Queue: 4 jobs
Job 1
Amino acid sequence: MQWPWLKRTWLVMLLSLCTVPLARASKYYGQVTFGGLPIPGVTIVAARDGKTLTVTSDEGGVFHFDDLADGPWKIEVKMQCFETIDADVTVAPDMSAAKWELKLLPADQLQALAKAPPPLPPAPIPALKTTAEKKPVTDTAQQQAPEMPKPPEDNNTQSSDGLLVNGSVNNAATSQFSLNQAFGNHRYNTRSLYNGGFAVVLDNSALDARQYSLSGFATPKPVYDRITAGFTVGGPIRIPHLLPRGPNFFAGYRWTRDHNALTDSALVPTLDERAGILPNGTTVAINPQAAALLNLYPLPNLTGNPDYNFQIPVLNGSHEDTVQARLDKTLGKRDQLWGNFNLDSTRDDNVSLFNFVDTSDTLGMNSAINWSHRLNQHLFINTAYHFSRLRTLIRPEFENQQNISGAAGITGNDQDSANWGPPTLTFTSGIASLTDGNSAFNRNRTDGFSASADVFHGHHNITAGGDLRKQEFNDYFEQNPRGTFSFTGATTGSDIGDFLTGVPYASSIAFGNADKYFRQTVYDAYATDDWRVLPILTINAGVRWEYGAPMTELKDRLVNLDVAPGFTQAEPVLASDPVGPVTGEKYPNSLVRPDYSGIEPRVGISWRPIPASTIVIRGGYGIYHDTSVYLTPILQLAQQAPLSKSVLEQNSPQCPLTLADGFTQCGTTTPDTFAIDPNFRVGYAQTWQLSVQRDLPWALQMVTTYLGVKGTHGVQEFLPNSYPYGGVNPCPDCPVGFVYETTGGNSTRQSGQLQLRRRLRGGLAASLLYTYSKSIDDDAALGGMGHQSSTSASQTDFNAGSSSSSSSSPQIAQDWLDLGAERSLSSFDQRHLLNLQAQYTTGQGLEGGTLLGGWRGRVLKEWTLLTQFNIGTGFPETPIFPLAVPGTGDIGPLRPSLTGSPIYAGPNGAHVNSAAFTAPAPGTWGTASRNSITGPNTFSLNGSMQRTFRPSKHFFLDARIDATNVLNHAVFSSWNTTLENAQFGLPQSVNPMRSLQATMRVRF
């Protein structure tokens, strides 16, 4: 099929990039000030070729011309009592905001103005269909002049956007197209000084689609409601005789009651397995501890699907209350003071597959106060103080209710009533893991101080300043108090058989000093110059130094490992006695030496190579450090022997493990399970970017962008002295069983973007963006999903107090002697991504209607339709071979070997082919690369429609409907990539299905 019109369109677009542009329209805007303060009501006139356009500045001194033709214009800025400014300006796309500083007239001219008669009021605008009541006046000049018209009585003629219509009507305070009341001089009474509104957002299960079932069986949809309501109010604070000119304020409150419906599918022990009959027909005696834990599993309720035999609907609830407040006050002519306060309280009920209900209660607050002082028209001083605090309280199902482990006869774990509950059980065959959250009571606080100075001199806008941030993390939780057992089938040939007989493959636990008080101070200093070299060239250059001190614990309860060269020996070193017993080195009380090398030069340019052309070239380079890297490792250093109990063991003749006694340190591994390089460096990224922008016909704009990123000093984790499964231990006397973290990782990302944007024209605005990129790294934090071994978890899990999994993610290096072999696609690598956003509005039109009149105009006006469409390729995932690295008890770093069969399109509807992978040969590492499986494609299509109604001159009603996943298309988030798992190659989870949400908002 031929599309001649499409060929012609692309030909025109291609030629337009190589030819001199035709006259186009651009936006010209700026601010008018006097003594650094904004001046409202200033008249700005733009003249060219006999054409004159006029606007006035708003209450912030801001003015804008939305549609000036590119090229030279004569600009006139005038206001009574001030000198008129005349300037020649070349209008072009993406111009910076103009700054016009008014000067008072000489004293003799001001005295002459004071003696002059008052000016005549302006004549009424003919286009306005209003009537003006005549009032008796005595002044002859006023009798000769028409009286200023009153606001129109027709509600449909009131506009809220202040836009010009066909450039024929001035948007002054007397116009029907003026700003809303309470802005500028357009006020009828004192009530108009205040504005606000209230809103209600509704969603109901009847409007939402049923959640997707991974098992393929339908489940009853829970009945629920989602309701959000709130109000806002703002304006000046006025108290007669006490506070006649008080500050301006804004206050808002939001009340949310949400429920989230999910359909959980799982594989649970069958009735035969509950009776001790294994899948191979063998019958075993059930261990008493296993029998007690088995009772926590629900009975199967599905048949006919070998991958899933249980499914239930789960309904989680969330209650949230949010309060916001802001104040600002101008003090005299040189000072301005403003601040804000936010408070958020959230209560969640999290229901698990086992019907365990864990509750969480978070209370967060943050506030800031800012002060700005103008020394003169060229120098401004700014200072600020910021405060934030977050409290998190988590109560698991069995806290202070039932001691599951103690009643089952499981010893060696924490028996404190706050941590009652079952241990975590994991199975390699796909049986659902038995787990529950951990009790936690955490309080985090940040105090920040900042100061800066702005200098405006000639073509230079210079900013210099610094910040100081003190952070406190006051946590009360245990890392893994109930312990974790892993089952692989190493004893009976079936993981469920090993569980029933009470013989785990590996075990881990970490508890002891529950209270932890971490401290960190972060500093930065910076200076930057925005230099307008030429009208066609701007350079923004600066440098920043940032330093985040390594975290310390208030009571010095940190433990690291003092490691000999080559990892031939490792002994604990404490922050309370920071002298290495192996190396004799002296450590700081953070056990990590500081890194002061956070210098970050940055430069950016904007260049228009052809004056008055629409071609704009932008480029930049910068360095950015990550000073937040210390929190995750320090949480692990705070939960180690000898200050707490930490075990990571694998079942062996030298260390037999049972469910009853599986948390005993056997002496075959180090008593500590984590260590960090004392010379740990702060990672940084270098970024460089180049873009070319060009206007095209039909209100189109094209932007091409190249972006490069190079990461250095990335986090890497490995298991020292480890060796392949089935191999020979090369150093039996060397320490094993701990994860070592260092900063030798590198990463790189290259991306190209092509954006085609249509400016708002004829009611339609749209943006089409295509991104092609590739990211590779050997960085543990970028390539994996966050290490969560039995004694470590991600920062989020720690702060939440959730239990950790016994399986570490693929980010731990498989071969600790060849970290370069970990270099592969990054976990966030997405090769292709297409994004489309479009908006269509019917507009308001002249006198409040569309171009249509009568009832048709009233029905069609002011509708806005929006849509967002995204489609992209999947993210990389890593195949996992579910065996522990010999001697470590850590499951996860091992990967299978490739067989040569196709990776995708597996049997029985699996998206990944299990036949493409096999167990590594004894004594060898797996040949499958990290992140060598491409996950499911991404897709989303959302839409909304809204309209504003005007029941009166003072009130506005906004109605909106939002739809997510409009097509109700099932989009999977990831595949199961654990070999020998029943769900291997199948989706692990699915994104929410279609949901409709209605919003009603009243503004006044």
Job 2
Amino acid sequence: MPLAPGSRLDSYEIIAPLGSGGMGEVYRARDATLKRDVAIKVLPEYWSRDPERLRRFEQEAQATAALNHPNIVSIFHVGQYEGSPYIVTELLQGESLRERLYKGQMRLREVLDHGVELARGLAAAHDAGIVHRDLKPESIWVTKDGRIKILDFGLAKLHPAKAASTDAETVSLEPQSHPGQVLGTVGYMSPEQVRGQPADTRSDIFAVGVILYEMLTGKAAFRKATSAETMTAILNEDPPAVSQLSPGVPPGLQRIVSRCLAKNPAQRLQHASDLEFALEALSDSSPSTVTAVNQKVSNKRWFWLAAAAVIVIAIVVALVSWWRQPPAVPLVEAVTQLTDDHEPKRSYNSLATDGTRVYFNEGTAGSLKIAQVAVTGGPTAIIPTRFPIPHLAGLNSEGTSLLVISGNTDVLALPLWTVPMPAGEPRRLGSLEAQDGSIAPDGRILFSRGKDLFIADKDGSNPRKLFSADGLIGEPSISPDNKRLVFTVYLPSGFNSLVLSNADGSGQRALVSGSEGRQACCAQWTPDSRYIVFWDRNQGRPDLWVAESQARFLQRVHPPVRLTNGPLSYTGPVPSRDGKQVFAIGTNQRGELVSYDVSSKRFVPMLPGISAFSPTFSADGKWIAYTSLPDYSLWRCRSDGTDRMQLTYPPVRANYPFISPDGKQVTYADTAGAIYVTSMDGGAQQKVAEKGSSAASWSPDGNLLFYADYGESLRTKFWLYDLRTGNRTLVPESQDLLGVQWVAENLLVAASRDHTKLVLFDVETQKWSDLVSLTKPGIVVNWAHALDYKYVYYTIGGPEPQALRVRLADRKVEIITSLKDLPRAAGMGGQTQISVAPDGSAVFTRDIGSQEVYALTVKWP
């Protein structure tokens, strides 16, 4: 309840209430010990029982106490009285900036002075690792002597400790907000705060821009009739120009406000100290200051010295601002859908264009085709080739031939071919074998094999090695001016680096580092060789990014910037020949589980309304675990879809789960390939294998896990992991085999590297034997065992994709159904899946999303 005058809080005597402030009630009080008046903010007891309010109140105390700066309110004491926490601060005389604004528009000198002090205090907070996140006129105090004080750090975001000054305390708390949680005050929030995205120091810069705008014009920058309309304006509209409302504002100050209010954080001033410096420079060179100098100094010599000093300062300010300013970024102005054929298109896709057509791969794994569409959109057409699995790798500069790799890309050495356009007989490029490649602007062939990158003449002759990397090399591309090279390095950790170098491989530097948990891929050059366009998952939805290929004169190299931000996921970009557009695959990933009913010969939906991939079933048929699309979280539910529970959360991306035989645990692999085991009831995750592994399956007794390790050597190793002891045993002769699973008490199954057969390993005899060998064109794509361990189910790709099963007792193969008319969704890595339900029916994920080619019209700086 409110504190009455005369009551005491420890050694403080309440004098009078001052009103509410931030998260609590504020009182004027007398410090009986030090004989001074102070302000006390008290959190009411009924608010104290709210953990979130209490946390923020305590956070405000910690944030404010960590700072010792003349432009930030000082804190003297933190205590608790009868269940209500309180903080004691200096008593401020004056008024809030909001009260000052009620009196009318502010003078230019007043705005500059207050702006400099506001930026100075904010810079001190940022240097201490504190982001305010709720700056507004109500949280800024103007003292009687005209000094600015920043208040109300109740929503402050505290980063790991770093010194604010030599005599300041430090803080060491992690950020407390959660993704998707909107924090701040409507009208002063930055666009990223409106979206519920993490706020950083640039979010405070945006709020300062709104406050400066209001101080200069007397009008709110984004005030609308409702909160929703105000937030929409923050995201999509620019306020009226300052000059329209206040013609006398100097152009330099208008530019500063505009920079603060940029929608893209990368285009704002990046540091509060930059803002302080810019405002001080304007303040020092304002007309009133120059007039004062002229009145005091009549000597012409001193006048010219002062003028020269002003010019030098202006030049220094301009150079520093130019050096430190963020790059002008490209913007997507329009998006046009080019295809509408409802065919799946691989994420790791090499699009190519000759200026009139766009070429791309489509179809499921093992049944790929090369297709084309006009750059203006329309029907797609298949380019006939005699290859069962043609992978499009590139297009020559004349647009007269495609570079094609024939075979399954799990193999690191596949033949390279050129396919004449618009028609003609494919030609083998000498004896070249590669896992990826491209055609250089001068016609030479760039190709990778394992960790090595090579280059050969146009006809495939004279191949020579350029260099080696620390991981598999993919998507090599030489710039149109033939001077530089960009390529992807697929690291054993499961992450990717994007590397830029000179055309001969020298001078390598990472544009994006896989050590930061990035998955950048598939970089292509703009026609002027100035920019590199690529896609990057960055622990979330794939989006297109842009990087400068080199720094411009007197400017530093800037980090890559995001080009797209939903609602579709974009992959496989390639700029148009005129550079005005970027072609890419736009994906809205949705999947519907279906089982094949043999009696009716139909695919029957399962778990309606749930977008799922790679389901796994408990032996008793009561439970299902699956990966959700598109976020790749691990869920479990009952067989009828009820009692759903999420087991993993972003940014963890789960893949290929398997339920234990007793139905109590589930194992899965994350993006990097690390293997975990968790309870079907949720809880802690137990790591079984480090990065570089694939999904694991259980032994029938539930004591062992079987998994593959694709380590530094790029040669597969199979391991048996004993959950009881933590020991693991190497499976002999497992090199160059893929996708291991436990299929019976003493039997393991895997596929050959070329996907032409399934093989069995007998744990007792330690011997391998063939289970299935394909007799017609195609490859084995996916496989899974029946819950009764009597059959292995598998799919084959090629001209006639099918689902089949083989009986382990006598190795008899039977066809289940054709998959030609079933659009199957692909998970991470572009793979489809097959599962087996408790009743023995084959289960697939039917693609009900969209994956089409789009043209993005880009405005380049």
Job 3
Amino acid sequence: MELSKNFDHQQAEQKWYQHWVEKGYFHSEPDEREPYTIVIPPPNVTGVLHMGHCLNNTIQDILIRRARMSGKNACWVPGTDHASIATEAKVVGMLRERGIAKSSLTRDEFLEYAWEWKEKYGGIILQQLKKLGCSLDWERTSFTMDPDYYKSVIEVFIRLYEKGWIYRGKRMINWDVRAKTALSDEEVIYKEVQSKLYFIQYKIDDGGSSYPPLGEGGITIATVRPETILGDTAICVNPNDERFKHLHGKFAFVPLINRRIPIITDDYVAMDFGTGALKVTPAHDMNDYQLGLKYNLEVIDTMNDDGTLSAAAQLYIGEDRFEVRKKIVKDLEASGNLVKIEEYTNQVGFSERNPDTVVEPRLSLQWWLAMKNISEPALQAVIEDDIKFYPPKFRNTYRYWMENIRDWCISRQLWWGHRIPAWYAPDGSFAVAATREEAWEKLANVKRETVNVNEEIGRDSTQSIHDSRFTIHDAGFTIEDLRQDEDVLDTWFSSWLWPFEVFKGISNPGNADVKYYYPGNTLVTAPEIIFFWVARMIMAGFEFMDAKPFSEVYFTGIVRDKLGRKMSKSLGNSPDLLGLIDKYGADAVRFGIMFSSPAGNDLMFDEAALEQGRNFNNKLWNALKLVKEVWKVADAENDSSGFYNAGELPEISRWLPQPDYCEFAISWFENKLKKVKVDLEYFFKEFKLNDALKATYSLIWDDFCSSYLEWVKPEYGQPIDSETHKTTLDFFEEMLQLLHPFMPFITEEMYHILNRKDDDICMKQYEYSEPPNTLYLEYGEWLKKAISAILDAKNKNYIKPKDEITLYIDSNSINYQPSGLDEILKKQIRAKQISRANFSPENLNYITVPVEDSKIYIISEKEIDKSVLKDELLKDLAYQNGFLQSLLKKLGNERFVQNAKPEVVDLERKKQADTEARIKTIEESLANL
């Protein structure tokens, strides 16, 4: 079979992915092997593949493929998240295009449309993951609103409520005016913006019967949100601020509406910020709300759900908050209350789900989970390294959040999602239950003492109803009068169950799958959801499964553009990932993203990295063509006159003997391969996947293609011996196996071309690698440096390849000369002769080339300009001296020597010794010029 000019990635991707799936390689069932489990961070059903997904899922696929090839029972569970806010927005948009308003539909009618949208679009991203080569167990695909999953979420809510850990209360929350729902603190993204600081004077009540004029007796506050003054119920100053002591206990008037409000004192107010006087709006600021509770201030909610002003504002009713800001500033100026305006840079909260929407702090009746009750085991698991973070720097971030954890607002004002299982009676009492019938039964049997009644049915927040013998059946209403809570649960309240509920750990406790696959091994995720998801999954694991959900968490970096900006549609800097796969191939894309991605650090995406991946494909392909098509293998039985194509060898009994130079090249590369295998074990253990790829890349490109193949390559037109050829194919196969987790398609394609085997590389098991013989590694490195240095010297001294040279080698480092080393050196630099005898320079035209602590003398029949050589040696000497000084400075730093790992310090000391030896050699070479 003649190989094509280049690797056809599109043909290979389609062929091999279908083959792997048909073979069932990705599916896992419990057996006697050690399991290796990864659950995918479920992408939103609204999602399409982008560069962040590419990085995250490539890493997971690398880990799962390597585990599979290491003999483990690898299970990578796919699935999607229902994404309440994002999906509801998509459905509302779809309805708008059809001329349908959500408000015109019942809840059930809307949900029919939502399920229609989900079935049509919800699985797109999973199909796109196949294009990337992700080896997910598709038979285990989960969705956070599957029937069993839904029931489990409701059951968890009920369990926590019955423990007293879920409660309902009116508290300050973050409000998304576009989605018209509450957000958790973690769903608010703070951005630095240029704002204006408005200085507004409030008149002081002087005790007279009429409204006093503005003047020196007023009090001035500074605010960036002048529209909120309509909800002010106090002004607060620091009790130690001498400027305002004459106003303690007095009252002021809110501009434009003339509401009379008290002037209170509290240490919370900073005397050096703004004017030192703080307006207090308990319904629209988190900190003001706390002051309101402390001083029993009136709470006036001036905002509607959609960000327009309510009737409580008295002015600008029904107008958008930002339009009101413009208008109220003009009106304040006209009334004489506006003192001045200054430019101001501040942090403003935006909705994580609707990035252009400014979040509104708002007092709202919501459902909450008391997190202190559930967080301690999850905190200790990470502190004590029972769950390890990679990189470990994220442990401190996690610890700080967990130690300062706040209660979780778990309700959302949406229709798409897991509906809160609370049922309300007309008298305001309620029961938490999975069904209407169970709620009715609970309400019927509960003793009627004091019940909480929410404001939606128009009663006080608490009131006493009947006596303890009264039951609901005496109240004059029926089961049909019970109404379920309109809210749904925060999406994260379902995804925190993901590691065990994908195996039905709640819906079918103790089943064979959850016992075998849980806890999982590795979670791969982004650091920005360490609180949204990672921390909560750990909490849920200990609470509901009495065990951690995973053993390691690998945090990826953020994919940024070349300017360092986070990729986003709004910036237009997010490339079309599927287009890149079509252009460069999945392997090249995977290579490019991983080659640029050090663990836990952000990566600057550059399409040039994908070109590098494609070039690597071409390098591999050309190497394959060389050993399979270009090289010919000699048949010794025909006196070496009959050559066979390397891909069509007959079964013959005897071949040409193996040259000495091939023996050395094989021994060197065999040990190089062993070293890389050992290194890869360490890199994978420490999740240094970027280092693992670079080590594999260097092994193939630098060591195999650039050195080994050149060293064993026969002279032009001559055959290669069969033993070397067979060993070369074996090396090639081993390298493809190491590379496969990173670049699955080209490695599978080449594996089958290489040996035409019936098995597949994706299931081929790694063999244990013994430590390498480091002497051979040293010989090989010396040889590579010698070849490079001699060729460079020949070039700079205008010695042409055809010009004959003789080498004399004076080496202290290579005392024992392995067979074949000099033959390779001679062949690669085209030397007539190599001698290790004592060199006598009298009357010879020569160049001295230092290589480590060796000196190589190049004898040429052509006249050599030694001034060129001297200049090069002086440049090299200056560089080596500078490098030595940097090493001495580092090793002279006691902090570095004491804190660095011993092997790191030893490496720096070896660099020092090597550099000093090289300097000595250069100086001797200069002295001999």
Job 4
Amino acid sequence: MRRGFAGRLIELEQRVIGELETAVLWLVEIGDAVALPTTQKSDAISLAGRRLRSAGRNIDADLVCVTARHAPVASDLRLVLALVQVAHTEGLIGNQFELISHQLAAIKATVPDRHGTGTKVSSMATGGGALLKRSATAFASRDLVLARRLDREDDALDQLNREVFETTLELEGAAEIRELGLRHVLIARSLERIGDNAVDIAEQTEFLVTAELREFTDASHPKPKGA
């Protein structure tokens, strides 16, 4: 009985990590789509977001079912609780994918990115993907050192987010140029949130290893500084 429960937890954790790795690949696609938006790309990103959210809900439901049939020991219960939180976080990332897809669908590819906000947003997608990949690695390997480092690495995304916001705030000229900047601001905000989600996953690594739940920073809530 105990062996079967442990096996199911391993399977569910692999599913969670697999979904995170898929999300990392889609962040690369988002970076490309910002540089060259098309309807096909925005639709695909929206679908990826819905699938990720659905996968998170399914994993959560399976965790509840498998735990209800057993009496987990403390270490198993910590893993269950951590996986529930990470599955929920995957759903939040899926939501951000959909928000990003809505903005991409509204961008006109003919409008030039004269102020470079799109380039910075693309860099944020790349950086967010790298951050999410490291958070998945830290969780899977129970690497506490790596997990604790991610909060500092997230600062780079926060800085780019502020730069996109501040650049757009100063934009002048044609309405379509200012609209492009505003849509880049909204995409940047979603990518900054995904960076915070990666830190949230790292915090679950801390919980698994130390049995203590603490926030590295207030990553899950809006920061007062910047956009």
